[in-house]
Design goal:
This protein is α/β, with parallel strands linked by helices. The chain is built from 7 helices and 5 strands; from the N terminus they run E-H-E-H-E-H-E-H-H-E-H-H. The protein is 35% helix and 11% strand. The longest helix is centred in the middle third of the chain and has 16 residues.
């Protein structure tokens, strides 16, 4: 499969990656979907990723095993409690060291092998938890790295890192999902799933998700174990 109209989209199973991948389809690209099984505590998100890849008609969906729990350093990959007291200003313990750098590197390898030049990632720099690898500077820096690090880039066929949600609030992202006709209930956001297939309702990701639906004026399809007061 070699075609410049193919895009590789990182699909975690979350709301943002769903809308980002859907934008790739709306932009006219055939879709290769990449998810990473990094032994995350919210492993249930991979089932959501499979639902999303199918709903978007991905030509191929790869769930790549890469056990980042061997490194630890995050509440998502080690025995560290997920914070439940609200979104703070500091980088939280749910930050996974270099996660987006690792994931984009994997997507870049697949893109070069497939002849694709566009990589879609659902990062945004407004309503997020303060992760350094969601900033515009990171996206721009990785795009430059991709040019330097690949045969295609050196030979004058650079890669484009598409971050269509970069400057959207979570409410904007919900509204964009509705504009694209998506069933946002297919996605999963919670970092610390509750029994019965429920979102916990209190982790940073749940709070941001709930706030996004509320501010967008869109009914939230998510089932939460608790709601933040």
């Amino acid at each position: 499969m070699t075609d410049s109209q193919i895009a590789v989209a990182l699909v975690s199973g979350g709301l943002d990656s769903f809308v980002s991948a859907a934008r790739a389809r709306a932009d006219g690209y055939r879709l290769l979907a990449l998810s990473v099984d990094y032994n995350q505590r919210h492993h249930v998100e991979l089932a959501a990723a499979r639902r999303i890849a199918q709903a978007l008609g991905a030509e191929r969906h790869v769930v790549l095993p890469l056990d980042l729990s061997q490194f630890g350093g995050s509440a998502l990959t080690a025995d560290i409690d997920v914070p439940k007291d609200g979104v703070g200003e500091d980088i939280p313990v749910t930050y996974v060291p270099a996660r987006n750098t690792i994931f984009l590197s994997l997507a870049l390898g697949w893109a070069e092998a497939a002849g694709a030049r566009d990589l879609y990632i659902g990062v945004n720099a407004l309503d997020y938890s303060g992760y350094p690898d969601c900033r515009p500077e990171f996206v721009e820096g990785f795009e430059k790295l991709a040019e330097l690090a690949t045969k295609a880039g050196v030979e004058g066929a650079p890669f484009r890192i598409r971050a269509p949600l970069q400057f959207m609030s979570k409410a904007d992202i919900v509204q964009e999902g509705m504009r694209l006709g998506l069933d946002l209930g297919l996605s999963w956001s919670c970092y610390d799933p509750a029994p019965g297939g429920l979102h916990c309702g209190l982790c940073d990701s749940c709070r941001l998700r709930s706030k996004g639906f509320e501010e967008a004026g869109v009914p939230d399809p998510t089932r939460y174990a608790e709601t933040a007061g």
